[in-house]
Structure formats: structure tokens, C-alpha cells
């Protein structure tokens, strides 16, 4: 993997005042990466954990991750959702090895320290010592307190069946964190309907984690890289588009309305990925049926900084979880879902359209590939810069695809938090 | 079925498996859909989804037409880093035979070699197959590639 490659010495300074040039070292420098984890993943931000539908009953748990840290999402006896760090308070063992299951308590295998579903320490073997020759010897000191020695418990927010958590208990509310614009697009999908998990896909992408955020803040590439998007009009230059952000410009929504019919000449002139004579032998893969809750847009791609992408592209829905594994590699975990009240036909449709997405998907497999190519280019030239001037130098909201405004917006926020 | 006929049929099955593997390792994509029936199922699915009854697959095709669409995708639309793939497939184990339908299982390991790179283990799992005879030739009515590999190394473009 690329993350072990040696980065050459660099001044690590930001080029100029703007955000229309991004130096390669932001994707490769190990110290920068460490600081990103501390400032974005472990403080001041909400990270995606999972869906409530994955843990319907008390005792149900499923492992997840915040940055590089392993956490457990669990439903406590009182029905509330808890998120606990998967690190035993005793010797730091990452004790929970199963991916998911149901437990009455968590017990670390090493010395059998036991925790309840809220993470409170409930049992320590030989706490009061061992009786030998009528005398108690060993054990924990008499003044040892169980209280406050539990698993690290994260702050949890649940909205519309989606679970977020933060190691930072002083973090603002999830609603304030997302802001009204992004929240309205979040609620468009998660409006209280019960969710049904369809399954998972996992890929390890040899690139910096920010590149995936940037990929889904980049409306410029889909109609060029992805033949299916341009040829079938799902996302291309003549699509009605709007690019929106929260006040901090860390989160974004790419909103599009599908183009129907053949594109006019200038939309696809010179676009080699446009295949005028392409048609599907089996069109069921694009049997698109508009849904009332879309309220107009046929696609809304939400990037929630730092860890989540929420995909609604026609009838396909997924949560895409970014789990960094070093400056040059991240795991990308896809959870596809439907709604409980979908009929079988709609579920089949969502499943068939899932062929477009994921690590083999017609419009996603190549995103991972180009991210890998970018990372290869960054590796050896930390001071060289990406050129991000599509749509100007600023980061205002926009209504066309030839714009990199959302990426520039993200780097405004990134620079402020990182102090560079 | 007597023993001699059974041995003959098994030999034919082995031929189907060997030809399938040879075709996809050679990148002979046009041959790939021809190993299947018209209304076939082809599925590439993580073991977790399979074992928990979750229907999502990494790829899920419901007809020979969809396989031909995939071939077009590999050739024309899916931009990717080219690679060689090499399958090592075990002898198929017969799970059951039912009215001319063979239900089989075989282990596979796929190695990937990118230009200028070392060969790596790419995807490991098992095939769950249903084979039928169509106009004299054996075809896959269904082929599910259920993979153990917890992480796909970036992307799987070519058929397994």
C-alpha cells in the first residue's frame, strides 16, 4: 500500500491565500494526517456509526469505526443506542472481535473484566484478592473505585434512524452541526420511515481519505469519467444541478435532475465517454421509477464531513463510510438500504441499480481507480499543487457542473481548523 | 445413473469449469456470457451478506444480456488500471443432482498482477453453482461467487 511510501522533506506551507491551489502534501504528510484525526475525527465533529435498523433489539451490537478507532454500536436494555470504544479499561485490549451479535454484557477475554451495555465496569475477577491459608491476599487496592473505570462512551445522536457519535462530549448538536440546508436534504431521505438494510460492500482504496469527500464534491467528473452517467443522462452537463453547502462549507449537497433524451451537441462534444449508440441489452438495470419523496431531484449526493457520504442516485440508496487507515489509504464501507414499506418490486429495483455502485459498480469502481492514480501522483512531490479553478477561485454556491466550488469550500474550512 | 455415465458427466463438468476459468483469465470476455443460460443468475457477493441472508451483491446480474452489458462496460465504459487475473479453482463438489440440474460448489482463489507490480491475492471464496444442459451443452443456470475476502483491493472490474 502507498501509505508507507517515504515523503520527501517539504516546507509544508500553503501556497498563497486562496483555496484554488491545494498542495500535494495535504494528502501524504503523516503529521498532517495525525492532526486531521485529532481535529476532525476525534474532536468537534460528528462521525457516522451505523443505522438503528442494524441493532433492533436490546443487546444487539455491531462494530464500527471512528477514524482509526474501533467502536461498538449497541442497543442498551432501555432501548437507547450507545457507542462505546472497543478498548478494555484494563490492558487496552480491543476485546470485541465479532462483527455483530447480541450480548447481555461485554467481557474482555484477557482477564474477564466485564462491562454492561452502557459501558460501565461491572466485574473484575479476584478484585478482593484470593483466599490462601485463611487470608485474603492480592486483589485491587481497597480504595479502588469501579465508578468511572468503564469503557470510553461516546456522545450519540440518532436522527431518522441514522446513528452518529463523537468522542467530544462538548460537540454542538447534530442539527447545528449539519446546519439547516444540509439537514433538509438529510431529512428528505430519513424522514422517519423505518429502514431495511440490504447488505454491505467493503473496499480498501489506496488514497487519502479526503479524496473520497472531494470526489463527491466534484460535479465536474461524473459526466466525463462515467459513461453510464453521461450516456443515460443521470448526471451530465445539461442536467439541472445545484451545489449547496452548510455555513462552514464542510458539508455539501450535489443535487441533480436527470436529463431525458439525447444531449445537444455541445454537451457531449469531445466527451469520449459519451456513447451515442450504447444501449443496454437488459434495461432492467436502469428501470427507474420516480418516488414521491424525491421532491424533484433524481439524485442528491450528501458529503457529511469528515466520515460519510449519503447516496440517493435514482432508486439506489447507500451510506458510504470513510474509515482512514493512514495518510495514503482508507476503507470504504457501503451499507445499501431500502425502506420497510417498499414493496418487493422496489427492493428488487434498488438491488439491480446497486450494480452501478460499489467496488465493481458502473459509476463507482472507476472513482476508486482515479483516486489511486491521484495518490500515486502526490506521493513524490509534496510541494506541487492541485489546480482547482473550475468555476473561479471562490466557494459560493453554484448551479452548474463545471465547478469545483464545493472542494474549495471544504479547504477553506480545513485550513481554518488545521491552522494552515 | 450408472457409474460410467456419472463419470462421463463429471468429466464434462470439469471441462465447463476449466473452459470458464481459461476464458476469464485470458480476458476473452466475449466467451464469458456464453457459459450461461439466457435467464441465468450471476452474483459476486460478500460472505457476510450471503450468510446473513442480506440480498445485496457486489455484482448481481439476472440474464445473459446483463452479462453482455458488463462485457461492454469492461471494454468501453469502466475506466480502470489494467491487470492480469489468474484463478486457481478446486475440483467441484457435487452437492446434489435433481432432474438434470447439478448443484455444485468449488473453492477459488484469484491472484491479481498489475503492470510492474508483484502478484497479490485478490479475491478468495467459493462458487455455488447450478449447471444444466441446454441443447447438448452444459451451462451455468446460476453462478454465485461468495467471497471470504473482507476487503476488495480498490475495485473488481473483470468477472470472477
Automatic annotation (TrEMBL), chain A:
<keyword id="KW-0520">NAD</keyword>
<keyword id="KW-0411">Iron-sulfur</keyword>
<dbReference type="InterPro" id="IPR017941">
    <property type="entry name" value="Rieske_2Fe-2S"/>
</dbReference>
<comment type="similarity">
    <text>Belongs to the bacterial ring-hydroxylating dioxygenase alpha subunit family.</text>
</comment>
<keyword id="KW-0223">Dioxygenase</keyword>
<dbReference type="Pfam" id="PF00355">
    <property type="entry name" value="Rieske"/>
</dbReference>
<protein>
    <submittedName>
        <fullName>Salicylate 5-hydroxylase large subunit</fullName>
    </submittedName>
</protein>
<keyword id="KW-0479">Metal-binding</keyword>
<keyword id="KW-0001">2Fe-2S</keyword>
<dbReference type="GO" id="GO:0051537">
    <property type="term" value="F:2 iron, 2 sulfur cluster binding"/>
</dbReference>
<dbReference type="GO" id="GO:0005506">
    <property type="term" value="F:iron ion binding"/>
</dbReference>
<keyword id="KW-0560">Oxidoreductase</keyword>
<dbReference type="InterPro" id="IPR001663">
    <property type="entry name" value="Rng_hydr_dOase-A"/>
</dbReference>
<feature type="domain" description="Rieske">
    <location>
        <begin position="46"/>
        <end position="132"/>
    </location>
</feature>
<dbReference type="InterPro" id="IPR015879">
    <property type="entry name" value="Ring_hydroxy_dOase_asu_C_dom"/>
</dbReference>
<dbReference type="InterPro" id="IPR043264">
    <property type="entry name" value="AhdA1c-like_alpha_C"/>
</dbReference>
<dbReference type="InterPro" id="IPR015881">
    <property type="entry name" value="ARHD_Rieske_2Fe_2S"/>
</dbReference>
<dbReference type="Pfam" id="PF00848">
    <property type="entry name" value="Ring_hydroxyl_A"/>
</dbReference>
<keyword id="KW-0408">Iron</keyword>
<dbReference type="InterPro" id="IPR036922">
    <property type="entry name" value="Rieske_2Fe-2S_sf"/>
</dbReference>
<dbReference type="GO" id="GO:0051213">
    <property type="term" value="F:dioxygenase activity"/>
</dbReference>
TrEMBL record, chain B:
<dbReference type="InterPro" id="IPR000391">
    <property type="entry name" value="Rng_hydr_dOase-bsu"/>
</dbReference>
<dbReference type="GO" id="GO:0051213">
    <property type="term" value="F:dioxygenase activity"/>
</dbReference>
<keyword id="KW-0560">Oxidoreductase</keyword>
<dbReference type="Pfam" id="PF13577">
    <property type="entry name" value="SnoaL_4"/>
</dbReference>
<protein>
    <submittedName>
        <fullName>Salicylate 5-hydroxylase small subunit</fullName>
    </submittedName>
</protein>
<keyword id="KW-0058">Aromatic hydrocarbons catabolism</keyword>
<keyword id="KW-0223">Dioxygenase</keyword>
<comment type="similarity">
    <text>Belongs to the bacterial ring-hydroxylating dioxygenase beta subunit family.</text>
</comment>
<feature type="domain" description="SnoaL-like">
    <location>
        <begin position="6"/>
        <end position="143"/>
    </location>
</feature>
<dbReference type="InterPro" id="IPR037401">
    <property type="entry name" value="SnoaL-like"/>
</dbReference>
<dbReference type="InterPro" id="IPR032710">
    <property type="entry name" value="NTF2-like_dom_sf"/>
</dbReference>
Amino acid at each position: 500500500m502507498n501509505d508507507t511510501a517515504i515523503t520527501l522533506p517539504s516546507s509544508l506551507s500553503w501556497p498563497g491565500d486562496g483555496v484554488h491551489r491545494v498542495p500535494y502534501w495535504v494528502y501524504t504528510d503523516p503529521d498532517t494526517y495525525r492532526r486531521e484525526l485529532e481535529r476532525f475525527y476525534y474532536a468537534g465533529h460528528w462521525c457516522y456509526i451505523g443505522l438503528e435498523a442494524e441493532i433492533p433489539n436490546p443487546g444487539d451490537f455491531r462494530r464500527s469505526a471512528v477514524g482509526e478507532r474501533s467502536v461498538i454500536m449497541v442497543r442498551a436494555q432501555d432501548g437507547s443506542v450507545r457507542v462505546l470504544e472497543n478498548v478494555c479499561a484494563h490492558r487496552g485490549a480491543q476485546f470485541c472481535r465479532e462483527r455483530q451479535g447480541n450480548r447481555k454484557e461485554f467481557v474482555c477475554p484477557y482477564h474477564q473484566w466485564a462491562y454492561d451495555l452502557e459501558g460501565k465496569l461491572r466485574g473484575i475477577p479476584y478484585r478482593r484478592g484470593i483466599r490462601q491459608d485463611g487470608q485474603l491476599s492480592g486483589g485491587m487496592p481497597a480504595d479502588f473505585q469501579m465508578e468511572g473505570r468503564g469503557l470510553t462512551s461516546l456522545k450519540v445522536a440518532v436522527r431518522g434512524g441514522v446513528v452518529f457519535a463523537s468522542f467530544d462530549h462538548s460537540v454542538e448538536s447534530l442539527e447545528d452541526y449539519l446546519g439547516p440546508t444540509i439537514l433538509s436534504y438529510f431529512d428528505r431521505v430519513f424522514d422517519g420511515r423505518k429502514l431495511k438494510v440490504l447488505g454491505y460492500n467493503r473496499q480498501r482504496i489506496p488514497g487519502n481519505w479526503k479524496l473520497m469527500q472531494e470526489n463527491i464534491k466534484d460535479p465536474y467528473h461524473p459526466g466525463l469519467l462515467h459513461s453510464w452517467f453521461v450516456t443515460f443522462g443521470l448526471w451530465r452537463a445539461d442536467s439541472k444541478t445545484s451545489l449547496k453547502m452548510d455555513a462552514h462549507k464542510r458539508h455539501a449537497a450535489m443535487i441533480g435532475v436527470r436529463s431525458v433524451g439525447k444531449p445537444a451537441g455541445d454537451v457531449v462534444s469531445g466527451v469520449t465517454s459519451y456513447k451515442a449508440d450504447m444501449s443496454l441489452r437488459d434495461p432492467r438495470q436502469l428501470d427507474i421509477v420516480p418516488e414521491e419523496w424525491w421532491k424533484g431531484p433524481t439524485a442528491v449526493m450528501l458529503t457529511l464531513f469528515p466520515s460519510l457520504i449519503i447516496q440517493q442516485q435514482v432508486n439506489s440508496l447507500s451510506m458510504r463510510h470513510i474509515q482512514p487507515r493512514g495518510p495514503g489509504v482508507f476503507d470504504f464501507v457501503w451499507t445499501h438500504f431500502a425502506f420497510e414499506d417498499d414493496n418487493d418490486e422496489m427492493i428488487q429495483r434498488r438491488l439491480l441499480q446497486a450494480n452501478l455502485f460499489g467496488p465493481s459498480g458502473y459509476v463507482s469502481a472507476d472513482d476508486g481507480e482515479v483516486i489511486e492514480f491521484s495518490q500515486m501522483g502526490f506521493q513524490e512531490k509534496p510541494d506541487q499543487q492541485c489546480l482547482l479553478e473550475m468555476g473561479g477561485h471562490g466557494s459560493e454556491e453554484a448551479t452548474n457542473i463545471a465547478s469545483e466550488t464545493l472542494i474549495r469550500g471544504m479547504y477553506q474550512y480545513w485550513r481554518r481548523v488545521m491552522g494552515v | 445413473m450408472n457409474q460410467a455415465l456419472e463419470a462421463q458427466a463429471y468429466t464434462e463438468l470439469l471441462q465447463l469449469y476449466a473452459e470458464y476459468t481459461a476464458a476469464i483469465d485470458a480476458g476473452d470476455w466475449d466467451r464469458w456470457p456464453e457459459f450461461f443460460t439466457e435467464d441465468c443468475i450471476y452474483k459476486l457477493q460478500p460472505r457476510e451478506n450471503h450468510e446473513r441472508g442480506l440480498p445485496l451483491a457486489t455484482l448481481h446480474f439476472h440474464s445473459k444480456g446483463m452479462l453482455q452489458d458488463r462485457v461492454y462496460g469492461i471494454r468501453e465504459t469502466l475506466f480502470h488500471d489494467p491487470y492480469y487475473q489468474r484463478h486457481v479453482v478446486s475440483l467441484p463438489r457435487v452437492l446434489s443432482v435433481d432432474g438434470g440440474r447439478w448443484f455444485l460448489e468449488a473453492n477459488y482463489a484469484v491472484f491479481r498482477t498489475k503492470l510492474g507490480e508483484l502478484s497479490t491475492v485478490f479475491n478468495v471464496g467459493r462458487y455455488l453453482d447450478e449447471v444444466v444442459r441446454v441443447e447438448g451443452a452444459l451451462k451455468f443456470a446460476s453462478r454465485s461467487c461468495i467471497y471470504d475476502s473482507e476487503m476488495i483491493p480498490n475495485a473488481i472490474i473483470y468477472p470472477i
